[in-house]
Amino acid sequence: MILGDLIELSSAMTSGVKVEAVMDKVVESALNLTSAEEASIFILDTFGQTLHRACSRHRGYIKAMPTGKQVILYGEDKLPNMKEPAAFVVSTGTTLNLGDINKVVGYEFDRIREDDKYGGLKTQALVILPLTIQSNRTIGILQVINPGASHQTISAVSENTLTELQSLCGLAALYMWNARLLEDNTRLKRQFDRHLAELPRQVRKAKPKPVIDSTRPKGLIGESPPIEHAIKLVGKAARSTVPILVRGETGTGKEMMAAFIHMSSDRADKPFVVQNCAALPEALLESELFGHVKGAFTGANTTKLGLAHEANNGTLFLDEIGDMPLALQAKVLRLLQEGEVRRVGSTKTEKVDVRIVGATNINLEEKIEAGEFRQDLFYRLNVFPINLPPLRERPSDIPMLIDHFLRSAAAKSGTQVPVLSSDALEALMCWGYPGNVRELKNILDRARLMAEDGYPIELDHLPPELAGVQHSHDNRVPALIPEGDLKSIVGQYEAMVIEAKMREVNWNKTNAARILNVSRRTIIDKLNRYNITRPDGFERL
């Protein structure tokens, strides 16, 4: 199976597919190879401080997709948190292959268990492999949850399977790194072409007007497989009449997609009405949505139509519908089922023809369990769900978005399009973007203002969390090195490596000595010298 997967993966790489498609193929191959429940790829940021999930696949039912929460690799002492399994793998470049995390002492699995709670899984076996290039540079990890789950035999993977996974990771890491270099070269070529076009004596022909693609949402930038898949679903949804639920994190473009659904439907020439359900208190929201009659409440001096009336024969987009009060949810459900509304203060119902598109960035399943969202409304809305991918899952779109935002801002201000330095681009490519596309735009707007006119956008023009507060062009690595003379610094790192290897082998001194190619006596001496002891409650080996 692995040979076929490697051949298929190599073919995909040579055919120039997007990096997202390659990552998706890697996690799919890892699932097939290990019969696991979940496989994910995490990408390391520019300075190796955090990991963010870039791709994830599952077998069977899960409550919700994994969160975009970053994995922090370093503690407050600026040293790797070796109790976090992912930090251990990134720092040491070794593989973790744990058969039962409940029986392993020395690691902290809080992150894993938090993801379990969110997705409805229960992790027992855990495999984490580094994505390594140039022999010793780690750019991310492959994480596999519960190998053997498909056969009801959850356990660590065999040595042969581990070797095959390492081959898969090596090929994937090489492609991901080369894709990043290609993006950098493409950026440089665009900048060169831009400067060439601005030469005063350059003779330029009039450019043809761009052809507007009516099959894509207006303003949507990106060609990665995840966003193309979402657009394909939106196109299918637009041709139907069923309610639609658009799900995605903040800043992923849910309102843009809702507008595209409307414009692609047979209601395109009718009203498209938008209401944010979290923006108004319950009483005002009810009046806004369904209208009111004169005298219904203090200040109701006239009879007023609601947004449901204004959207008649068109589309009503309810943004942040997960924050709608329960009492109003019942009225929205009636609108969906019967096409009826009743104004505040009225005893009569009115018929309207409205298509409902809802959107949310929260976990509605958890809201249902907490009694904060109606299950019947969820099922009525969730007829055709569309999940918009976060920006971290579509990294190949980041350079296009950067170019689009910089050009748009320059056109509005009448200034020259700024150049982006290589370090700044790498930092932007490696960031996890919890605020997604909106966050990227805000970062670029700030950087453009910080940079001097005519000069490139540099790393220190980016926010501190991207550039690294303690990093600068003259002092990047030393910020991660402990204080002291050379001997004490080397000693600290030696202690860190020995403790990491002892954890890896469950504190078996003989196995640790074999891996480090030293005698068992040397291991014992160094454990005593650096006062390294096994955690409490761990059986002696």
Q: Label the structural class.
A: alpha/beta
Q: What distance separates the N and C termini?
A: 37 Å
- Percentage of residues in strands: 5-15%
Taking pLDDT < 50 over at least 5 consecutive residues as the criterion, the unreliable ranges are 201-212, 469-480, 537-541
Mean pLDDT equals 81
- Rough outline: globular
Strand order of the largest sheet: 3-2-1-6-5-4
Overall number of strands? 13
**What can be said about the biggest beta sheet?**
6 strands, antiparallel
Oligomeric state of shown chains: single chain
Computed CA radius of gyration, to the nearest angstrom: 27 Å
Number of DSSP helical runs: 19
- The amount of helix comes to 40-55%
Short synopsis of the structure:
With 541 residues, the protein is of the alpha/beta class.
Name some characteristics of this structure.
single chain, 541 residues, alpha/beta, five-stranded parallel β-sheet, 13 strands
